[in-house]
Design goal:
Layout: E1 5-10, H1 19-28, E2 32-37, H2 47-54, H3 70-76, E3 80-86, H4 88-95, H5 102-109, E4 114-118, H6 122-126, H7 128-139, E5 143-144, E6 148-151, E7 157-161, H8 165-180, E8 195-201, E9 205-208, E10 211-213, H9 220-231, E11 235-241, E12 251-256, H10 259-269, E13 275-278, E14 285-287, E15 308-310, H11 314-320, E16 328-335, H12 339-350, E17 354-359, E18 370-377, E19 382-389, H13 390-404
Parallel strand pairs: 1-2, 1-3, 3-4, 4-5, 8-11, 8-13, 11-12, 13-16, 16-17
Antiparallel strand pairs: 6-7, 9-10, 14-15, 17-18, 18-19
Helix pairs in contact: 1-2, 1-8, 3-5, 4-7, 8-9, 9-13
Pathway: Cofactor biosynthesis; coenzyme A biosynthesis; CoA from (R)-pantothenate: step 3/5; Cofactor biosynthesis; coenzyme A biosynthesis; CoA from (R)-pantothenate: step 2/5
Catalytic activity: (R)-4'-phosphopantothenate + L-cysteine + CTP = N-[(R)-4-phosphopantothenoyl]-L-cysteine + CMP + diphosphate + H(+); N-[(R)-4-phosphopantothenoyl]-L-cysteine + H(+) = (R)-4'-phosphopantetheine + CO2
Keywords: Decarboxylase, Flavoprotein, FMN, Ligase, Lyase, Magnesium, Metal-binding, Multifunctional enzyme
Length: about 400
């Protein structure tokens, strides 16, 4: 079996230089990449750069190598087409089916997954015309990942920044992996049109200005859930509790610290969500009082006991007060003993639809790239997930969620 064939379309925006890093990651990971830049893109990055990085001449004109019919063949033979950056103009031409250059011809002939990574000024991204074009492309099955928030050209900042190339690469990798998996219905962005909320990381409960009660969660499983959902076409809101990880491409990240902050953010984000997956490790207790100054050691004295109070049960609250009747709520349960028995009891008490139960401690789960779990369903189902990458568990969770979505 040959290398997966990827077409990298590059539009004419200042972010075109970042596509060089995406191209490098794709080629170094074993993909055969053909670059199709627009005429405007070549004003930012020259043809020689694309050829040197890809190992192929850049496909520029419909009229080049006419005997090979490039405007048809390139799209037909691709396993994935990714357009990064995708400007407002490119999105508009793709949505309206125009074929006035090699890239738009390629998009019309491709029968493989197509990923757009938009980059433009905030006003352009938020314009009704662009929003309608994006909605049209998504209805047709394309994955249009949300742009990042940050510095744009000049002094402007806002939503419209191209996500980091490493994160766009992760979306491409996940899309290719799913496209290669044999299914009866073939590849599809099966979460397209859905809004999902994912929590990740571990909450911190402040004791004084320098100390807190926390846990060992790195946020890796929640981030894997967010990345996987985005690669399957969902609009994703990630509630990140103290996770020191790069923002996944196409994901709206809301940063929180304490359980109370996570609770407020989860209730707000869940108002229009089709599914809520609470993968964050939430502190059960918090200090009853907060010391405004650093608690000092006193010579010859033992420290005063720290009184604790319960935090709200966020998962149970979300399950009991669903914003919509068909909302699917998923919880995570980290256990150290009697894993399944404790998991079944927790599933019943929380009222959620699915509970992912995994054993933690002694190097398991927390801070690693792998996980092993059993997904318990309120319908009595049990789905064991063997030890493997956290993104594999994430895909199984979304498979189970999708089966429960109306």
């Amino acid at each position: 079996m040959g290398k997966p064939s990827v077409v990298l379309g590059v539009s004419g925006g200042i972010a075109a230089y970042k596509a060089c890093e995406l191209l490098r990651r794709l080629t170094e990971s074993g993909h055969d990449v053909r670059v199709v830049p627009t005429a405007s893109a070549l004003r930012f990055v020259g043809e020689a750069t694309w050829a040197a990085l890809s190992g192929h001449p850049a496909a520029v004109e419909v009229w080049d190598d006419v005997h090979q019919v490039p405007h048809v063949r390139i799209g037909q033979h691709a396993d994935l087409v990714v357009v990064a950056p995708a400007t407002a103009d490119t999105l508009a031409r793709a949505a309206h089916g125009l074929a006035d250059d090699l890239l738009t011809n390629t998009l019309l002939t491709a029968r493989c997954p197509v990923v757009f990574a938009p980059a433009m000024h905030t006003e352009m991204w938020e314009h009704p015309a662009t929003r309608e074009n994006v909605a049209t492309l998504r209805r047709r099955g394309a994955i249009v990942i949300e742009p990042a928030v940050g510095r744009l050209t000049g002094v402007d900042t806002g939503k419209g920044r191209l996500p980091e190339p490493a994160e766009i690469f992760e979306v491409c990798r996940r899309v290719l992996a799913r496209a290669a998996a044999p299914t009866a219905e073939g590849w599809t962005a099966d979460l397209a049109g859905r809004h999902v909320v994912v929590s990740a990381g571990g909450t911190r409960e402040p004791l004084d200005p320098v100390r807190f009660l926390g846990n060992r969660s790195s946020g890796r499983q929640g981030y894997a859930l967010a990345r996987t959902a985005a690669a399957r076409g969902a609009r994703v809101t990630l509630l990140s509790a103290n996770a020191e990880l790069p923002d996944p491409a196409g994901v709206d990240v809301v940063r929180v610290e304490s359980a109370a902050e996570l609770h407020r953010a989860a209730r707000a984000a869940a108002e229009d969500a089709h599914a809520v997956v609470m993968a964050a490790a939430v502190a059960d207790f918090r200090p009853a009082t907060y010391a405004s100054g650093k608690i000092k050691k006193v010579a010859g004295q033992e420290p005063a006991p720290i009184a604790l109070v319960r935090n709200p049960d966020i998962l149970a609250d979300l399950a009991a007060h669903r914003a919509r009747a068909d909302q699917v709520v998923v919880g995570f349960a980290a256990e150290t003993d009697d894993v399944l028995a404790n998991g079944r009891a927790k599933l019943a008490s929380k009222g959620c639809d699915l509970l992912v139960v995994n054993e933690v401690g002694n190097g398991k789960a927390f801070g690693t790239g792998e996980n092993e779990a059993v997904v318990l369903g309120a319908d009595g189902s049990e789905t064991p997930v063997p030890f493997g990458p956290k993104e594999a568990l994430a895909d199984i969770v979304w498979d189970l969620v999708r089966a429960r979505l109306r």
